[in-house]
Amino acid sequence: MNNIELNRFWEKVKEELIGNLPESVHPWVYSLEVSGYDKGVLTVVTGQTMAKEWLRKNHGEQMNNILQTISKNKDARIHIIYDENAAIKIKKEVAKIHKKEAEAQLKEQAMENLSCMQSSANLNLKYKFENFVIGENNKFAHDAALAVAKQPATKFNPLFIYGNSGLGKTHLMQAIGHYTLFNNSKLKVKYTKTDDYISDFISNSRKTNDSIENMSKFNKKYTNIDIILIDDIQLIESKEKTMKRMQQTFDTLYEKGKQIVITSDRLPEEIPKITDALASRFKRGLMVEITPPDFKTRLEIIKKLAGNNDIKAEIEALEYIAKHFTNNVRELEGAFTKVCAYAEFNNKPITLELAKYILKCDENEKQITFENITDVTSKYYDVDIKDILGTARSQKIALARQISIYICRELTNQSFEAIGEYFNRKHTTTMYAYEQTKNKIDIKKDIASAVREIKQALKVL
């Protein structure tokens, strides 16, 4: 027999030995290595001293019978010899196995500890940086959040993230917490919604025999941490006692060099009935805005959602959803989930036709007119439509006119000539107004916010 034939022959014999011998001796059989086969004697090597005598004494006859059946040689027998080199090899392999098992156990324990910390910090496992789709609308906010996660309380403290609901503020905020716990488990992280903070404060500040002790526990709960993540801070407005307590919590954490991250649906100065002292503290660090995602980013979001859930869909179907659900990420994901659920329940592929049938976006679309746009813009700026269409040149009216022209160009398929005719201006003037507004959107937050809000208002007419 050549080596290849010998190894095949031994594998066949070993398979029968495993199938017929007690399970307790299987590890010894697995470790046997074939050395040769000559004149009916199959020589195998072991590196385990007990294996040689135990197998020969207790199972030798049975092993020989198996070999004789396979080899069709009634005199065939198995000869086991002990080899020191084989023993060294086995020890190394066992050491490797033990090392891998120990590493796996440590990793499992670390993940279990991390999971406990995430639960204690009140974090949602899906809100991590690797699950966040970056676009032009949120890149600055993402970069700032990542910088805070890598070096808490060194650069941007507090970090104030603002923008409309459903755009990813909570996702970014909690991603900071996850990153911190994974990379620096010694730090304490706490995520809280503002309404939970308010309820907690109210319940602990009630006048009882234990009120002083309860407030002491409350203070420790929110200040004995390294990173605090406070969501939807705008809900604190008008609650004077809670705002005062929040200010004390903020000051304690800030003075101790702890990181504060806050989200809101608007800027501090735009939150009604919030104290100037608290608003000034929120503005002490870095304020970053998240705006609605553009088409490219929306498409990437649902592509990633499909990929993460192993869902196959026609690209045209995904593009259809991305095109029609523009307000926020939550609405976009909800539309995608609705289509996926129908497809699953009815055992249908996710096609463009199916998406159109379920979402009926085309049926719900309204034709937006120049009149609609100027009407909504005039109400937003509290000016008369006649002034927008007329010759008035006050700063407020001129701005309303420029934004109206910009939105007319963006939301209709009409030419600059048609827009100019409606506004009683030359087409070159409307082109200039459009470009001026387009440039201002990139550098002026109030202009960008006005355009966004007017567009959203037009969709619900």
Layout of secondary structure:
Layout: H1 3-20, H2 26-31, E1 33-38, E2 41-46, H3 49-71, E3 77-82, H4 84-120, H5 139-150, E4 159-162, H6 169-183, E5 189-193, H7 194-205, H8 211-223, E6 227-231, H9 240-255, E7 259-264, H10 276-282, E8 286-289, H11 295-308, H12 315-324, H13 329-345, H14 352-359, H15 361-364, H16 370-381, H17 385-389, H18 395-411, H19 416-422, H20 427-443, H21 445-459
Parallel strand pairs: 2-3, 4-7, 4-8, 5-6, 6-7
Antiparallel strand pairs: 1-2
Helix pairs in contact: 1-3, 5-6, 7-8, 11-12, 11-13, 12-14, 13-14, 16-18, 16-21, 18-20, 19-20, 20-21
List the keywords:
three-stranded mixed sheet; alpha/beta; 461 residues; 62% helix; five-stranded parallel sheet
Your description of this structure?
With 461 residues, the chain is an alpha/beta fold. Helix content is 62%, strand content 9%. It has 21 helices and 8 strands. The chain has helices at residues 3-20, 26-31, 49-71, 84-120, 139-150, 169-183, 194-205, 211-223, 240-255, 276-282, 295-308, 315-324, 329-345, 352-359, 361-364, 370-381, 385-389, 395-411, 416-422, 427-443, 445-459; strands spanning 33-38, 41-46, 77-82, 159-162, 189-193, 227-231, 259-264, 286-289. The protein has a 5-stranded parallel sheet, sandwiched between helices. Strands 1-2-3 form a 3-stranded mixed sheet. Strand 6 (227-231), helix 9 (240-255) and strand 7 (259-264) form a beta-alpha-beta unit. It is elongated. The N and C termini lie far apart (88 Å).
